[in-house]
Structure formats: C-alpha cells, structure tokens
Design brief:
- The chain has 507 residues and is an all-alpha fold.
- Helices cover 73% and strands 2% of the residues.
- Helix 4 packs antiparallel against helix 5 and helix 14 packs antiparallel against helix 15.
Length: 507
C-alpha cells in the first residue's frame, strides 16, 4: 500500500487552511504556496500514472481497515489520468489568474482554489460511493466561493442559481445512496459491483430505481440535457480563470458515469442491463444539439464559450454511451482535448472582456490593446473547440465516429456529430469576425480601453501553454490512444478493480 495515493487529497487539504491562517495578508506568499502545491500535485499525478500503468489498480486503506469496512481510495489508470489532467489544468488556470490579477480581487482565492482541487481529486480517487458524495459537496462549496469571487449582483444571482441546482442534485444523490444501501448493504464500489452482479431477483426493481437516480445525479454534474440549465449562466458569469477551472467539473460527472457504468452497472448485470446506455445516449444527442445551436445563437462571448462546453459534453457522452472498449478509449481522448480547449476558450474570452469592458458579440467597440495576438489565440482556441483539423479535437471526433460505426444508430449519430460541428464552426467564426474584424464605429459606446494596460505576459503564456499541449496531444495521438485503449480495457474488466480492492478470494 503506497501512501502516495492519498497525497493528491491531503496536500491541497493542508495547504488551503495554511493559506487562510498564515498567509491571508501576503498575496505573494499565497501565490508561491499555491503554485508550489499545484506543481507538486502534477509530479505526484505523473508518478501515480506510472504506478497505475505498471502495477494496475492500487487501493489505499485509511487506518488500514480492510475493504469493504473501511474508507478506500483507489488509484487506477482512469483515476491517475484524471488527476494528471486536473493538475495540468490547475497550473494553467493559476498562471492566468496570477498574470491577469484576478487573484487580487478576493483575499481567499488561493485557499478556495486548493479546496476545489481537494474535492476534485478526492472524487477521482475514492473507492466508496458515499465518499464520492462527500467530495462532490467539498468541490461544490469551494466552486461557489470561486464563482462569486470579486462579487457583483449578476454574479451573485448566477451563483445562487448554481447552488440551487446542485443542492437538488446532492439531495437526489443521498436518496440514491440510501436506496443502494437498502438493496445491497454496502457502498464500497468494489463490494457493490460484486453484490449487484449477484442480486436476488426480488431486489431488481429497487436496484433499477437506484441506478436511474444515480445517473440523473451524474447528468446534473455533467450538464447533460435536460439538466444543463445551470451551466450557461454560471460559466458566463464566473471570472475567466474560474470558468476555465470549471471545465474539469463537468468531467467529474462524466467520470462518475464511466466508473459506475463499467464497474457497478455494466451491461451484463441482469438487474440493470441497458439502463446506463439507455439514459445516456438520448441525453447526449440532445446536449450536443442544444450546445452547438447555443454557440450559434449566443450574443456574448461568455455564453458562447459556455454553450461550447455543453456541446463538448454531448460529444463526450455520445462516446461513453455504448460502454464498449473502443468507444471508451475515444471518449477519454476527447475528454482530455475538450477540457483543455474549453479552458483556453474561456481564458481568451477573459482577455477580451478585460480589454473591451464588454463581451457582447455584436456591440461596436474601439480596437483593444494586443488585439492581433488575442485574435490569433481566439482563432486557435475556436479551431480546438469546434474539432477542426489539424488539432486534436479533429482526431478525437474521428476516433468517436469510428467507434460508433457499428452502432445500430451509427448513421444518425454520425449525422448529429458532423452537422453540429458545422454549426459550431459557423457560431465561433461569426463571433470571431464580429469581435476582431468587424468595422469599429467611432460613435460606439466607449469600452474600457487603456493603451497603457500592462501586457500581462503570464496570462498569454497560460493560454499558449494550453494550446501547445493540444498540439502535443495531436502529434502524439498514436501513443496516447494506445495507452487510453489499455485504460479502457481495464475499465471494462471489473474483476481487475474488484480483486485489487477486496483481494483474490473475495473478488
């Protein structure tokens, strides 16, 4: 049992109160501590990826209590991948927040940032369904604080809406967990997988109810239609770096769907066969359509980026829905790409908003400082978000299309992906041309435009880093998809996870 498994939870959990209690009046010290912590998380995540690749799933038994009686964290390929992606995104976002000065606007930005990382990392590592709920609540509380960072009536209103929706989801989560425990007598994921596979026929109906409730909760977290209403206002009103960090939060919902759909409710489980795919597929199609149509119809850059995030979740869930090895590998590749692309787009929108004073697409404003560089970054981020060649979004969509080729509805799913990609290109292109290349009227409402504004090089470097990683992902798509294929194969072999946690006798 390696103690490294718990570090991604313990490190931010210790760093956050340390920042609040000992550094709250020293911004430079907060920055140093926060950046150091995130770099440390990245190093630990890289080591855990290596361990998961070589050793397979690795449990961590808190207090050395054996599963399923004690609290268990599990590091496997999927968990380690998500930890690495979170650390990478966190470093990019943190660099932008420091470079643009967003962290100056509230005393507790860095502490909330660390609490957010604690909740996200814990959700990816936990091997217990109830502790998944606990970590969901930690990241929800921290994200609410980040959401209303620097205040404002509109931001506060969007934050209240965000909290209300997610509290409803949390309540449903508790109902679902109570139902699961009533049926199986356990909430340890490995033990739960075993008991669900051998469930008596008389308990099948209640097990199906619990399954449906759980996937509704994950749909709320993943912004799957019809539970996506909270996302556009939340993401468009949040500070730019916060919205970029939130790109990983919807992936927590997708992660939970993958974990439960392959481990606890696989298609071969008689009591719940077909529920996961039957719920996810229609919601994914509607999410994809509504998200990309929203991109075309958005009147502000913030809402456009938010709807692009919704559309990308639709594409991701389309790949997840078949719950097959090939489609899961394609989904994981697209998950990495879409997280980085969404973050880059939100950060570019933040640069525009800070220089124009408004993110209205059709409003006329004087030119902004560094407009050419920002336009180039927007162009690259838009190509990534739309899934156009030559970036990795195009590779991801090709992998998804290939995985869906043998599906009974493959032709219609292909049509949905291709048509919505065209709509996204039109919407992103319209917004870019209106903001960066439209003729500027001298009588327009003056924007906040200060030619002497600091160059903010670190903010530009952060966006450039996100786009550079997307380029690297494109270049090394072959080795990455090979590793992700092995990850998907491990996911679809629940016995590997169960034996690692419960031991060979119980498994």
């Amino acid at each position: 049992m390696s103690h490294w498994v718990i570090i991604p939870v313990v490190l931010p959990a210790l760093l956050a109160p340390l920042i609040v209690l000992g550094m709250r009046r020293d911004l430079l010290l907060q920055r140093v501590a926060s950046v150091t912590g995130v770099i440390g998380l990245g190093a630990v995540a890289a080591y855990l990826i290596w361990r998961a690749s070589v050793l397979g799933p690795e449990p961590y038994l808190l207090g050395n209590w054996p599963a399923p009686f004690g609290i268990v964290l599990v590091n496997d390929r999927l968990s380690a991948l998500m930890l690495g992606l979170t650390a990478l995104l966190a470093l990019i976002v943190l660099a932008h927040a420091i470079g643009s000065g967003w962290d100056r606007r509230g005393r507790h930005f860095h502490a909330l940032f660390q609490f957010q990382l604690m909740g996200v990392n814990g959700a990816f590592l936990t091997g217990d369904a109830f502790n998944l709920f606990v970590f969901f609540e930690i990241l929800l509380i921290a994200s609410y604080g980040l959401m209303i960072h620097s205040g404002g009536r509109a931001r506060l209103g969007a934050g209240v809406q965000y909290m209300a929706y997610n509290l409803v989801g949390s309540t449903l989560f508790l109902f679902a967990l109570g139902t699961v425990y009533a049926v199986t007598g356990t909430l340890n994921m490995a033990d739960l997988a075993e008991r669900m596979a051998n469930l008596p026929e008389g308990h099948a109906a209640l097990a199906r109810v619990a399954c449906v409730l759980l996937f509704i909760v994950f749909a709320v977290k993943g912004a799957l239609v019809p539970f996506q209403f909270w996302l556009p206002a939340t993401y468009s009103m949040a500070p730019g770096p916060v919205a970029a960090l939130f790109a990983i939060m919807t992936k927590v919902g997708a992660y939970a769907v993958l974990r439960f759909g392959t481990l606890i409710y696989p298609e071969q489980t008689a009591a719940t066969a077909g529920i996961a795919s039957g719920l996810v597929l229609p919601g994914a199609v509607l999410t994809l359509v509504i998200g990309m149509v929203g991109v075309l119809g958005a009147r502000t850059l913030g809402r456009m980026a938010a709807f692009a995030a919704i559309g990308s979740m639709g594409t991701l869930f389309l790949a997840i829905a078949p719950f097959q090895v090939e489609s899961t590998a394609a989904a994981l590749f697209y998950l990495i790409h879409s997280t980085l692309a969404a973050a880059a787009l939100f950060l570019v929108v933040d640069l525009v908003l800070r220089r124009r004073g408004s993110d209205d697409i059709d409003a006329l404003h004087p030119p902004v400082a560094q407009g050419g560089l920002i336009a180039a970054l927007y162009f690259a981020a838009a190509i990534a978000a739309a899934g156009m060649p030559p970036l990795s979004g195009f590779v991801g969509k090709l992998l998804i299309l290939d995985a869906l080729r043998e599906d009974a509805m493959g032709m219609w799913l292909w049509a949905a992906i291709l048509a919505t990609s065209l709509v996204a290109i039109l919407g992103l292109g319209r917004a870019g041309s209106a903001v960066f290349w439209k003729a500027h009227a001298g009588t327009a409402t003056p924007a906040v435009h200060d030619p002497a504004r600091p160059a903010e090089p670190l903010a530009f470097v952060a966006i450039g880093a996100a786009l550079a990683i997307i380029v690297v992902l494109t270049i090394f798509a072959g080795p990455v998809t090979g590793w992700l294929g092995e990850t998907a194969a491990e996911l679809h072999d629940p016995g590997v996870y169960i034996r690692a946690v419960l031991g060979p006798t119980e498994g």
